[in-house]
Amino acid sequence: MSFLLNLFNFRLFDKKQFVFDKPIIFITGKNQSGKSSIVESIYIIKTGRSFRTNSLNNCIKEKEKFFSIELKNKDNEKLIYNDQGIKSYFINDEKSKHDLVNPNIFILYNKNLFNFIFQTDFRRRTIDELISSYDKKYLFYLLHCKKILEKKKEIIYSNIDYNTKKNLYFNLLKSFAEYTKYINEKRREMIDQFDDFISKNSSYKIIYQSKFDNLNTDKIIEFYDSNFQIEIEQKKYLGPHNDYYILIEKGKKLIENGATSDFYKFYFLLFYFFINKIKIEQNTNPIILFDDFFLPLDLSSTNNLISYFDNDFTIFISQHDSFKIEKDYCEIRL
C-alpha cells in the first residue's frame, strides 16, 4: 500500500513530503536528522498522542504556532495542533476524533522496552493496552475501574463519618467486583494464549499471579470491603493493584537470567502475538512502527523477527542505517 505523508512545522521540518511505496520502509540518517520524528508523526495522526512526549506542544517547530500532519493512503487523514492545545483531526475532510486505543497501529520503542522489562507498573500498563486494542469491553471496564478508584480515594480522604463512607463505597462495590472479575479472567486468558504461542518459538513465558484467581463476584466484594476497612482506619489508600506479571526465560526471571537480546525478542513476540491476533480475527492489517529497535540484535536475529510479518503489513523502521533483509523494502535517507 502506498502512503503519502506531509509534515508542516513538525519538529525540525518546515515543510516536507514523503512517499512510501513498499511494505517495509527504512527511515535512516544521522542523529537529530528527524528519523524518529517521521515515525512519531505517523503515530500521532493515528492515535492523537505521541510516544516521545506527554505534550504535543513539544512537536511544534521552534518559533511556530502550530503543526500539521497529513497522511494519505486509503483514507486522507489530517491533524492540526496549535500552541493553545487545540487539536483538530479530519478523515476525508470530515471532522473526527481518535479512539482511546487504535488497533491499527503499534509502536515498538527502545525506551518503552526497557520500562516494560524493569518497571512492574509499566509492564501492566503495556499488557493492558495490548489487550484493550483487541477487546473493547476490556478497555471499557478498565476505564470504569479507574473512575471507581478515584471515587474511592475521595471517600477515604473525605471528612464525612464512617457509616456514610461505608454506604458510599458499598454502592460502588457490585460494579467494581464485576469489572474486576472480567478484567482478571481476560488477562489470564490472554496470557495463557500468549504462553502457548511463545512456547513454540522460544523458552520465554509470562507468569500471571492475581489475588482474584478463582474468586466469584461475592468473594471479590468481600476482599474489597475488608481492604476498605483498613484504608478507612489508616486513612490511607492502599493502591489499585492486586496482581503482577513475571517474565520468565528458561525457568528463571528474565531480568536476572536474560541477555539484552532476550529483552528485545520477548517484547517483540508479545506485540506480535496481539498484532497477529487482531489481523486474523478483526481482518485488519495494522501499521507497525520500530524506532531504533533492532540496534542490539545481529542481522540473523533481526531477519528472523521481521520474517514473522507478511507483506500485508506496513512496517516503518527508523535507525541510523538500513540492513539487508529478505523482503521488499525502500529506504528514505535523511
Q: What is the topology?
A:
Layout lengths: L2 E8 L2 E8 L3 E5 L6 H13 L18 E7 L3 E7 L4 E5 L2 E3 L8 E5 H9 L1 H15 L1 H22 L4 H37 L5 E7 L6 H18 L8 E7 L2 E2 H4 L2 H23 L4 E5 L7 H8 L7 E5 L10 E5 L1
Helix pairs in contact: 2-3, 3-4, 3-8, 4-5, 5-6
What's the gyration radius in Å? Answer: 22 Å
Relative helix content: 40-55%
The order of strands across the largest sheet is 2-1-4-5-6-7
CATH superfamily of the largest domain: P-loop containing nucleotide triphosphate hydrolases
Report the major sheet: 6 strands, antiparallel
CATH architecture of the largest domain: 3-Layer(aba) Sandwich
Strand residue percentage: 15-25%
Cα separation of the termini: 22 Å
Q: Can you give the mean pLDDT?
A: 92
Classified by CATH, the class of the largest domain is Alpha Beta
Describe what you observe in this structure.
The chain is built from nine helices and 14 strands. The chain is globular, with a radius of gyration of 22 Å. The chain starts with a strand and ends with a strand. A hairpin with a 2-residue loop joins strand 6 (about 85-90) and strand 7 (about 95). The protein has two domains: about 5-105 and about 285-334, 3-Layer(aba) Sandwich (Rossmann fold); about 115-255, Up-down Bundle (Glutathione S-transferase Yfyf (Class Pi), Chain A, domain 2), CATH 1.20.1050.90. With about 325 residues, the protein is of the alpha/beta class. The mean pLDDT is about 90. Strands 2-1-4-5-6-7 form a six-stranded antiparallel sheet, with helices on one face. A five-stranded parallel sheet has the order 8-12-13-3-14, sandwiched between helices.
